[in-house]
Task: structure prediction
Amino acid sequence: MKQSNKLTISDIGQNIRQIRELKSFTQEYMAIQLEISQPTYAKIEKGQSDLKIERLQKIAEILEVDLSTLLSTTNFFNIVFHAPATQSGYINSQTNTNMVDIKTLRKIIREEIEKH
Result:
């Protein structure tokens, strides 16, 4: 867990990357949704791109999280997973939005994928 409450563009990029990976979205998918190239999107995750609030809001929308989640200074995210009909490893917790430690959530996801 981060010790400082000071948020950097790199922290925002890391939050975006972690949530994107938890949602099993590729960088290419995100880039298409944002109507930018994949290398340009990669710079966002690396903290090498200035982000306007409109772009951050769009990213939050795609990732289905509140903007405040992207601006978090901890490794705890409030994430809702919408399970597709195929049950392809997503956790179905449409009504459960408890705070979950990212490492615990990754473990849960891995276990669910292994079951299928």
Remarks:
- Confidence is low (pLDDT under 50) at residues 83-99.
- The chain has six helices and two strands.
- The longest helix spans residues 9-22.
- Residues 19 and 63 are 7 Å apart (CA to CA).
